[in-house]
Amino acid sequence: MLLHKLGLLPLGAALANAFADTSPFFFFSTSELLISVPEIQTPSTLIPRLSNLLSSCPSDFYVLVSQPGLDASDLSWFPRSAPNLRRRMDGTNKDVRSSFEIRDVLGEVNSAEIEKSLAEMCRAGVVAVDASTGSFPILSDATPRVIRLDFPSLPTTRGAMKAAEHDAFLNSVLDLLPSEKYTVIYTTSHIQDSVEGSQIQENDQLYEMNNGMWEDEVHMDLKRDFSASSGLAHVSKKDEIQLPDGPLFARYQFFTPGIFMGLFVSFILLSILYIAITALSSLQVSYLAFDKEMGPAAQKKKEQSQ
To answer: Residue 17 and residue 35: Cα distance in Å, rounded?
Structure first.
């Protein structure tokens, strides 16, 4: 019996080591989709399932998010650091009609393969966005597009803070889409996998245009303090809107023309009310005016009236 237990130890260690390299996978869409996915998947089985699921091209935009440096053990803190993603996954956001989560994906999902499949099936333009620059092109029409959003790897320290920044950036991208029909495929990878793939990501171009889909690009900065030497040689500074640094009153406008007009009208109405109250209070009437006349003069008046 003891020998049998000792023989199972290497098998248990191998299984634990295998699941240590797993990473979570998230999917949500504003379209009604019939979803049936096992809890454990490998990239070789997951990618064909996604292709089948999206074969009808139910959305106008397909956002492929890549978040390196996140594995299954990080799910203890990651949902708290990504509140916008959590609301879309747990059904709090009513715009999302289909979603599923795979806690353990054995291996790294190849986003490029998913991107190629969607571009061919849905005849969609493709653009790659590097979130480290904090800029994203605002779209003016709902032409089908595949948007690949590559986040930097989460650091081993203060990873929750960086995850919150990435979650806010993704939420801003989804809010800027001109159509409410979108699908998000959120892939993650173990820290070792992300280090191996970092050299490939550095060689990716920030923006890719397909068939002249991108017209009248207006670049809005969604993140402060990004480097000016990020390689955006084809984007001029005048086309970028940068959030100003400084104190709170320097970054936001608290008194708009509408508020000023409301305060001005309120001042006039309060002035009129003050004048009216002052005029009423200045009236002086003698108390004798309300007293009944008595004495001989009153008796005489009574006799004359009879």
So the answer is: 29
